Amino acid sequence: MTGNQWGYGKDDGPSAWNKNYPVADGDRQSPIDILPHQARHDPNLGPIVLNYDRCTSINIANNGHSVVVEFEDSDDRSVIQGGPLDNPYRLKQFHFHWGGKGCHGSEHTVEGNGYASELHLVHWNAVKFKTFGEAASTPDGLAVLGIFLETGDEHRWLHMITDALYTVKFKGSVTDFKGFNPKCLLPSSLHYWTYLGSLTTPPLHESVIWIVVKEPMIVSEKQLGKFRTLVFTGEEEDERTRMENNFRPPQLLKGRTVRSSN
Ligand SMILES: NS(=O)(=O)c1ccc(NCc2ccco2)c([N+](=O)[O-])c1
Ligand SMILES: [Zn+2]
């Protein structure tokens, strides 16, 4: 496994990541299993505030690990603030993690139970840092909003994403994706758990303030199935490996406290 060649398979998957990324065995790794009854309710934790009204999506891409929608982050046009955050954090991108048919694919679990998928809205502290890369490698430089996806009725707006997936089937494909505001994906309540953790894929930097929303968004099995039409591999590669089970299992809490908004 050369340098940054990692994946979710038997030989290059999460259990092998510590070879090239020793921080994988660190003290504040993500995801974790959340135990609601052991989370500390903190009355000082205010609501999460999202100001996405002028958000500007740019493109949708298959990076060989997930499908990612990137945003214009040269100013504070789309930020998250409040809750555990001391500054506004700028929206940089969102992406998903999902399982195989009928299997769970979320990264965080709740009392050992996984959801079908998990959406990550990734933000960076542009008050303290000049670039995303700098923020991503510094403690608390990032704030990731995690939303669980549960199967049920069709999600009325998710089709805007799933209808575009055929254009990014292969690793390395990118297509224009303008005018999408991810606020339409959020559940009605933004009550959350929060804890200090890490990126859930290499380089696994311990730079993330995690904000995991309690209420899942509901999507249909058909919508979720469209994510599984993507492949991990490039168009030129002969084997087509279906993109699924691209999630890291829960990591040890190592004494960390999980706080709960009301
Ligand atoms: N699953 S996640 O939200 O924790 C996550 C993981 C990795 C990366 N990126 C990998 C990276 C960061 C710096 C250098 O390379 C991102 N991200 O970039 O939003 C998010
Ligand atoms: Zn993620």
Describe the protein in words.
The structure is a single chain. This protein has 262 residues and is mainly beta. Helices cover 8% and strands 28% of the residues. The chain has 4 helices and 15 strands. Strands 2, 3, 4, 5, 6, 7, 9, 10, 11, 12, 13, 14 and 15 form a 13-stranded mixed sheet that branches. Strands 1-8 form a two-stranded parallel sheet. A hairpin with a 4-residue loop joins strand 4 and strand 5 (67-71). The chain is globular, with a radius of gyration of 17 Å. The N and C termini lie far apart (45 Å). GO terms for molecular function: carbonate dehydratase activity; zinc ion binding. It is an enzyme of class 4 (lyase). Keywords: Lyase, Metal-binding, Zinc. Belongs to the alpha-carbonic anhydrase family.
Spell out the blueprint of helices and strands:
Layout: H1 17-20, E1 33-34, E2 40-41, E3 48-51, E4 57-62, E5 67-71, E6 79-82, E7 89-98, E8 109-110, E9 117-124, H2 132-136, E10 142-151, H3 159-162, E11 174-176, E12 192-197, E13 208-213, E14 217-219, H4 221-227, E15 259-260
Parallel strand pairs: 1-8, 2-15, 10-13, 10-14
Antiparallel strand pairs: 3-6, 4-5, 4-11, 5-7, 6-7, 7-9, 9-10, 12-13, 12-15
Bound molecules: 4-(furan-2-ylmethylamino)-3-nitro-benzenesulfonamide and zinc ion.
Zinc ion binds next to strand 7.
Instruction: Name the ligand types.
Output: 4-(furan-2-ylmethylamino)-3-nitro-benzenesulfonamide, zinc ion
Helix content: under 10%
Number of strands: 15
Order of helices and strands: HEEEEEEEEEHEHEEEEHE
In percent, how much strand structure appears in the residues? 25-35%
- The rounded Rg comes to 17 Å
Largest sheet: 13 strands, mixed
Function: Reversible hydration of carbon dioxide.
Keywords: Lyase, Metal-binding, Zinc
Domain Alpha-carbonic anhydrase: 4-262
Family: Belongs to the alpha-carbonic anhydrase family.
